[in-house]
Amino acid sequence: MEESDIYFLNAIGNLQKKLSNISYVFIGTNTNASPVIDTSWLRSINSTDLVYGTEPFPSAYSKCIKFFSEFPSIKAKMLNFAISNQNGFSKLYQGVSDWNKEKTGIHGTLISPENSTGEYNNSMYVDVSTVTFEYFVYLLNITKINVLIIDVEGYEYEILKQCLDMGFYPELIYYEEFNMKQHEKEKSYNLLCNMYDITKCKYDNLCLLK
Description:
Elements: H1 3-18, E1 23-27, E2 50-54, H2 58-69, E3 76-79, E4 82-83, E5 88-95, H3 96-101, E6 108-109, E7 120-131, H4 133-140, E8 147-150, H5 156-165, E9 172-176, H6 182-192, E10 196-201, E11 204-209
Helix pairs in contact: 5-6
């Protein structure tokens, strides 16, 4: 188990001891409801907890629904959208290796290839529906967020900002920063650092509300 897994699992365990009726929100859920490799912690989610998620890539969304079905206590409410800065439609660019292999949606981004740090191509994309974070919350009637997990291949800052602008301050935020440009990493850190203790976990950041 990697060090990042241990940090995350310890933080989740501590939160579960402290709170009841926890609200988990996964953005960019894919076929794995956590960016953490070991998903056994999901078995500690009970039937009174709330689980929400969204995954824009069609085949990945279907796999995600199947994935959650393996955890009987989890009654996840899922949407087949990407979180963006507007409601509508957008191109979701697919990682070149994924596209050539299975078109799985594992690596998909709203960021155009010329502005992305990843391996993307202008001709390799699917059209997806997009919603703002505010509309996502409205559609699923989310009234609180205790745990926010984001893995959206470089679009993390926009989602973090929209979440905090709405007045949600999750006790735990775990987001990938590997595909973010340096100035986006810095903006995300500056957005969070006054309210959160931030621990760098390999490709991700673990943020705990102070």
